[in-house]
Amino acid sequence: MKKSNIIAVGALTAAFAAISAWSAMTSIEPLKGWLQLSKWGISVTGIVFLLMLFIPNIIWSKNQPAGYEESTKRESKLLLALERAGEVLVSILVITDRRLDRLWLSSASGPVISPRLGYLVLALILMIMYELYWIKYFRSSRTLGDMYADYCGFPLAGASLPVFAVFLLGVFACNAFLTAASIILGIGHIGIHLMHKKEIEK
Q: pLDDT digits over 93-105, tens only?
């Protein structure tokens, strides 16, 4: 990994650890949320997240880099299956868990900001960076190298940023299924991008 990659991933890890520590110290029962059933319904947060995810990809489908279709023929069938499964699971889970819309906690003195809100804020920052990555790609010569480039130090930004964001959403909502789905998506999606990146560097 490049030095910039280590710094970016390290900063994200440090922020995640800080939010986790803050949440654990201020919560009476830090594991209680993970043991509760999801509040099913349409999540506004989930809809916004999917729009931020799908809109750039729809535009990209009309602006694919030269040689992309040929490179997809060499993709691992296992990684592709994991990627597709992860995409379906994540799409369903983020749009149906109302806990993603829970920004406040009830207390004797009234609603208070949940320390877990830090996970949501961090996920939003990553998704904004994801949008900026796509803007950079669309303004470039749109080659395979541009598509699999780093952004703000994050390696394979087109794959890693949304995967990290989904993971944070899962932790924010205390949704073990969404967290697991993000890992499945990450293995497939980042794995495929990594394979293509290595092919370009040969």
A: 999 999 898 876 5
